[in-house]
Design brief:
184 residues, four-stranded antiparallel beta sheet, 9 strands, 25% helix
């Protein structure tokens, strides 16, 4: 019995020693969050240190709808909420609304923010949250509710209140503020 207890203590000591010797890998990056880069501000850098998300440095518009129609007559595009989907979502929104001549809606404005020949787009729900978490590095106004490119349902779009951080969905035809982003 004493041997078993001593063996158990020895095994626990080895495991604890192994765990405490584990070293964290730190990737150096030539970029920094808050750095001005390609016409915007870096708000996220991935684990490789080589890629990330750039936000426009300012609010592009204070009051635009997600959709140019109050009651969309076509099938809404399939969108995703995660990181890395904002560009695809924006192109899907543009494609679904190609028959509309108006450019007065969120995806159109975000897409035409082509400063410095970057590919700008309306952020997905997760990308919008990343921008919110790093808004202090930008000149984006925090008194507004910003729209994402992610649909919550057939007639609702995800938005984020930059005053409180809360994300919720609103009708597509409701007007919200616009910020665009780009990846590097």
């Amino acid at each position: 019995m004493k041997k078993q207890i001593l063996s158990a203590i020895l095994i626990m000591a080895i495991v604890i020693g192994f765990i405490s010797c584990k070293k964290e890998v730190v990737v150096s990056s030539p970029y920094q969050v808050g750095e001005y880069y390609h016409g915007g501000i870096i708000v996220y850098i991935d684990g490789t240190g080589q890629h990330g998300l750039i936000s426009s440095n300012y609010t592009l518009n204070y009051s635009l709808p997600y959709s140019p129609c109050q009651y969309p007559t076509i099938e809404n595009p399939k969108t995703n909420e995660g990181y890395g989907f904002g560009a695809d979502n924006t192109l899907a929104i543009m494609s679904a609304n190609q028959w509309i001549t108006s450019s007065n809606y969120g995806a159109s404005v975000a897409l035409t923010n082509s400063l410095y020949s970057r590919n700008w787009f309306l952020p997905s729900k997760e990308e919008l949250n990343i921008i919110y978490k790093n808004v202090s590095h930008t000149d984006i106004e925090t008194d507004y509710i910003y729209q994402s490119s992610s649909l919550d349902s057939s007639l609702k779009v995800w938005v984020q209140d930059f005053k409180t951080g809360k994300q919720y969905s609103v009708n597509q035809w409701e007007s919200e503020a616009i910020v665009s982003c780009s990846q590097f």
